[in-house]
Amino acid sequence: MSITENLKHIKNTLPAHVTLVAVSKTKPNEDIVEAYEAGQRIFGENKIQEMTDKYEALPKDIQWHMIGHVQRNKVKYMAPYVSLIHGVDSFRLLEEIDKQAKRNNRVISCLLQMFIAEEETKFGLDQTELMEILASEEFKALKNIKVVGLMGMATFTDNQLQVKKEFTQLSGIFAMCKKQFGSEDNLDLNIISMGMSNDYSLAIECGSTMVRIGSNIFGSRNY
Ligand SMILES: *Cc1c(COP(=O)(O)O)cnc(C)c1O
């Protein structure tokens, strides 16, 4: 099936409250243009350099989401235009995003990435670290970022029960934080980013409001 057909099919299966991030990493601009012409505006990339090249070449009403691990020294390259950063996994990174956002005279929306998988290779905060950040005075002083939700990646496994347990855990942490912290100028929790091509239906059942889908739209990736 074509990119256009894939997109249409996926959009038809998503509930209205779930936002689709089309993950275009490693894919050429022409693939993104096809998805754009089919109406897609939100694209996810995991490398800042690649995302910036695409940003410069492609229509300016595309919303670019950084879904990969972020190095602090590269934040400045995406700060002028990035729409949402999913993978924020430390206070120091949040501080750097705040600093670069201020330089660009904007507020950058962020998701805090939670470690929910069993694999050591995945990044993210645990619940205690998350609570410490959100409760701190240092966090409240950051005026040029806005934490709008949480992101997580489940263990790469065929075991659906395991994946379900991890997604449910993330939803639970989200609900608890929302209750405990309410909204502030730089905190407004309304997004749970979880679910990829293989597990997005389950993620939605478990409370996801934003799914990140690559291969089911663009086909498998050759690295
Ligand atoms: C690559 C990637 C995706 C998309 O993966 P698919 O299996 O191709 O849908 C989603 N989230 C993150 C963080 C990724 O790096």
Automatic annotation (TrEMBL):
<protein>
    <recommendedName>
        <fullName>Pyridoxal phosphate homeostasis protein</fullName>
    </recommendedName>
</protein>
<dbReference type="GO" id="GO:0030170">
    <property type="term" value="F:pyridoxal phosphate binding"/>
</dbReference>
<comment type="similarity">
    <text>Belongs to the pyridoxal phosphate-binding protein YggS/PROSC family.</text>
</comment>
<comment type="function">
    <text>Pyridoxal 5'-phosphate (PLP)-binding protein, which is involved in PLP homeostasis.</text>
</comment>
<feature type="domain" description="Alanine racemase N-terminal">
    <location>
        <begin position="3"/>
        <end position="221"/>
    </location>
</feature>
<dbReference type="InterPro" id="IPR001608">
    <property type="entry name" value="Ala_racemase_N"/>
</dbReference>
<keyword id="KW-0663">Pyridoxal phosphate</keyword>
<dbReference type="InterPro" id="IPR029066">
    <property type="entry name" value="PLP-binding_barrel"/>
</dbReference>
<dbReference type="InterPro" id="IPR011078">
    <property type="entry name" value="PyrdxlP_homeostasis"/>
</dbReference>
<feature type="modified residue" description="N6-(pyridoxal phosphate)lysine">
    <location>
        <position position="25"/>
    </location>
</feature>
<dbReference type="Pfam" id="PF01168">
    <property type="entry name" value="Ala_racemase_N"/>
</dbReference>
